[in-house]
């Protein structure tokens, strides 16, 4: 179980990566250069993939063993008790 300090560290990281990805999304608003179809009615852009990479790479850097469920990346399941969504 996470203690208060561990929860606070993860919360701060969640805020940081959200802001990082948000800044990139704002800089690239209206500049989509590539759209790919994932499935019927499900599209992904190069900007979506960049935002996903910003978020997941930083989480992995600090919490290598945590699971990550991401819309744009394959599930990373390390059988951890902790999962980022």
Structure characterization notes:
The chain is of the alpha+beta class. It has a single domain, classed as 2-Layer Sandwich (Fructose-1,6-Bisphosphatase, Chain A, domain 1). 48% of the residues lie in helices and 15% in strands. It is built from 2 helices and 4 strands. It has helices at residues 4-27, 46-62; strands at residues 35-39, 42-45, 67-68, 83-84. Strand 1 (35-39) and strand 2 (42-45) form a beta hairpin. Helix 1 (4-27) packs antiparallel against helix 2.
- State the distance separating the first and last CA atoms: 18 Å
Any idea what the radius of gyration is? 15 Å
Unreliably modeled segments: none
Number of contiguous helices: 2
Beta strands, count: 4
How many individual domains?
Answer: 1
CATH architecture tag: 2-Layer Sandwich
Q: Assess the beta-strand content as a share of residues.
A: 15-25%
User: What is the H/E string?
Assistant: HEEHEE
Residue-averaged pLDDT: 90
Could you give a quick summary of the protein structure above?
The protein is an alpha+beta fold and 85 residues long. The protein has helices at residues 4-27, 46-62, and strands at residues 35-39, 42-45, 67-68, 83-84.
Comma- or semicolon-separated keywords:
alpha+beta, 85 residues
SSE layout and pairings?
Elements: H1 4-27, E1 35-39, E2 42-45, H2 46-62, E3 67-68, E4 83-84
Parallel strand pairs: 3-4
Antiparallel strand pairs: 1-2
Helix pairs in contact: 1-2
